[in-house]
Amino acid sequence: MPVVDVDPDELRQLASTERDDEELKRDLFDLGLEFEGETEDGEFQLEFAPDRLDRLSVEGVARSLRYQDGTDRGVYVPKTNDAEWVIEVDESVPDERPYVTGAIVRGLDMSQTKLDSLIQLQEKLHATMGRQRVKGAIGIHDLTMLKGSAERSSADRSSGQGPRDNAAREGAGKAISYRGITPDADTFVALDSDAELTPGEVLTDHPTGEQYADIVEEYERYPAIYDDIGLFSFPPVINGRRTEVDDESRDLFIELTGTDQWTIDKMCTILCYALDARGGRVEEVRVEYPEGHPSEQRDLLRPDLDVDEKTVTHARVEQLLGVELDESDVVDYLERAGLDAEPLERDGEPAYRVGIPPYRVDVLNPVDVVDDVGRAHGFNELSPRYPDVSTVGGRHETARLESAARDALVGSGFEDMLDFHMTSERDCFDRMGLDIPDELAPDAPLGQRPPVTIAEPYSEDYTVVRTWALPSLLTVLENNTHRAYPQNLAEIGLAAHVDEREETKAAERRTVAAVLARTDAGYEDAKARLQALAGAFGKALETPATTHPSFIEGRTAAVELDGERVGVVGEVHPRVLVEHDLELPVAAFEFDLSALE
Questions:
Q1: Which of 330, 371, 445, 529 is deepest in the core (most CB within 10 A)?
Q2: Alpha carbon 336 to chain centroid, angstroms
Q3: pTM beyond 0.85, yes or no
Q4: Is residue 178 domain-shared with residue 229, that is, in the same domain?
Q5: Residue 311 vs residues 149, 345, 522: alpha-carbon distances, Å
Q6: What distance lies between CA 523 and its chain's CA centroid?
Q7: Residue after which a domain boundary falls, among 302, 325, 346
Q8: pLDDT tens string 106-163
C-alpha cells in the first residue's frame, strides 16, 4: 500500500487543529491511516488503504480530519470559472492512448513546501490509479508560459477540430492540441535537459525517457501536446522545460492523458481538490474529440465535479454494523464522512439518499456508504458479540487438511512456498512441454487441461489461472540458481481449469506439489517423500509406470492413493530443465489434496 510523507505541523494548520503528535496518530489510525515512522525531517510516514486515494496528500488528510471533527460537513464542491481554454483532440492521436482531460487552477500562492506536496500527490496518483503512468499520466504546467490560439478558423471548426456550437463556447477560444506524431517529427527541450531532442531521442538519451520508454516505444505515433509556440508535453513520459512549474508559479494548467476517461477524470478531480485547499481557483477546460473517437461524448467540460448518488436503507446500516441508530445519528455520521444525506422512504422503510463527492473513487455500492457510517460512529465503539446462530465459527475441514499436509511436508524437509495463482500460457504449458487443449480430456496428463483465461490481462505474464502448481515451483528454482543446493520446495495451492459442468464453468481444486533439486536427485527420492506423506494420512500408495511430457520416460509413475489415480511423480525432463536454466536434476511430484481426506 502507498506510503505518504506528511508534515504534522502543516497538517495541523490545514486541519485547524491543535492536536499533539500522539493525538494525531491516534485519530489518523481511526481514519484508516497507519503511522509507519518518521522521516529525517520529522514528517509522518502514513500508510494508506488503496481505496482512499483522495488522502494521498496532506490536503486530503486534513480534509478528512476536519470532517472527523465536525468542522466541515456534507459534500463540498469547488466553484469553477467558465472555460477559456480548449483541448482539441486531433484524429492522429494514438489509438493506444486516446483520452485526455484537464483543468486550470489560478491564484495559487505557491511555495516550495506546497510544490513538494503537489509533486508527491502527482507521483502517488501515477503509482496507484495511473498504474505507473500506463493507465493515466499527469502533466502540470505554468499557464503563463503557454500561448493558445485566440481564434480558430471556420475551416478548423467545420473539420471537427473546433467547437461544434460556437454560441455555447464563447470565450473558450484559447486552444491547445493533443495529437499523435512520429518519433522524429519535432523537437523540444525536456525537463532536466538543455538539449533539443525528438520524442524518440528522449526515450534513448534522457533518464526519465529511458524509465518510461516501454509504455510508448511500440506506438506507431507518440502522444504529443502543442500550443501555438510548439510541442510542450510528451505524455506519459515527460513535460517540456518551457512550462516547468516552480515556487513562483501562480496559475497552472493540468493535463492528463490515458487509456480510460473515468480514471484520468478522477485523478484530475483529486488534484483540483488539493489545489483548491491551497486557495487556488479552479477553471474549467473544454475537451473536444473528433468524429470517430471512442469517447461517448465529443464535447466535455472538465474537471468532472458531478456529485454521484447512492441509496441505502436504515435497516441495512443497522444490519451490517450490528448497532441500533437513530435516523438523525445516521445523517450526522454521513455528513461527518463528507457525504450528503437526505432521509426518505423506500418500500415503506426509512432510507437515505446519499450524495458522494466527486473525489471519492471508492464508493461503488451502498455497502461502502455503510462503511463510512461505521468509521464516523467509530469501529472501536462497537461491542463484540457472538452472532445469533446455533454454531460458532471454526476452521473448515479443508483448511485443517491443508494445514496438516503442510506440517507433514515441512517435517519431510520441504520449504513451504506460497506462489501466485496467475501465470502465463507459456509458463504453464509451453515451457513444460504441454499442449494447450481446447477441451477437457479425461485421460490428459496432469496440468494439460483447458485454462481459465483473463479477457483483458494487465500483463502478458499473468494471462491464465494455473492448471497445476509444478510450473510455479520450477520458476522459483529458476530464480534461485544463485542460492545453495539442495533446494527442496513444496506448495499447496489453487489450480483451476475450464469445466462446462461446473456452475461457474471453472473447476477449482487444491493441489500438493513438491520439487527436490540437487546433484543426485532422482525418482526414488521423490517417491520416498511421497510415501512418507501418504503414510502420515493412512493412505495406501501405489506408483504404476506412466508417461508425462514434463517428465523423463521410464522414470515417471502415476500417483494412486487408495486405488484412485490422483497425480504424477518422477524426474523432470531435461528439456524442461533447460527451459528454466537449471543445470542439475530435479525430481518432483504433484497430486490433488483431496486424495488425503
A1: 330
A2: 28
A3: no
A4: yes
A5: 45, 10, 64
A6: 43
A7: 302
A8: 999 999 999 999 999 999 999 989 999 999 999 999 999 999 865 444 334 333 333 3
- The answer to whether 371 is annotated as binding is yes
**Same domain as 209, residue 93:** yes
**Amino acid at the residue 419:** D
Check whether 27 is labelled as a binding-site residue: no
In 10 A of CB 568, how many CB atoms? Answer: 24
Q: Are residues 296 and 428 in the same domain?
A: no
Q: Could you list the beta-strand ranges (E) of 364-459.
A: 415-417, 422-423, 452-453
Q: 368 labelled as ligand-binding?
A: yes
Whole domain around residue 56: which residue ranges?
Answer: 3-69
Residues 6+ apart with CB under 8 A from 141: 232, 233, 239, 243, 244, 245, 252, 253, 254, 255
Q: Are residues 512 and 566 in the same domain?
A: yes
Q: How many residues does the chain have?
A: 597
The x, y and z cell numbers of residue 105, run together, are 487552477
Each residue's pLDDT tens digit, 227-257: 999 999 999 999 999 999 999 999 999 999 9
CA dist list (Å): 519 to 112, 144, 415, 516, 575: 60, 69, 18, 10, 17
* Coil/strand/helix, residue 224: strand
Q: Which three cell numbers stand for residue 277?
A: 485547499
- Confirm or deny that 407 is annotated as ligand binding: no
Residues 375-385 have pLDDT tens digits of: 999 888 888 87
Q: Give the separation between CA 406 and CA 593, rounded to whole angstroms.
A: 11
In whole angstroms, give the CA distance from residue 375 to residue 380: 9
How many structural domains comprise the chain?
Answer: 4
CA distance 489 to 505: 31
Q: Helix or strand or coil: residue 434?
A: coil
Chain centroid to CA 402: 30
- Give the end-to-end CA distance of the chain in Å, rounded to a whole number: 38
Q: In whole angstroms, how far apart are CA 491 and each of 127, 415, 477, 478, 526?
A: 31, 8, 13, 16, 15
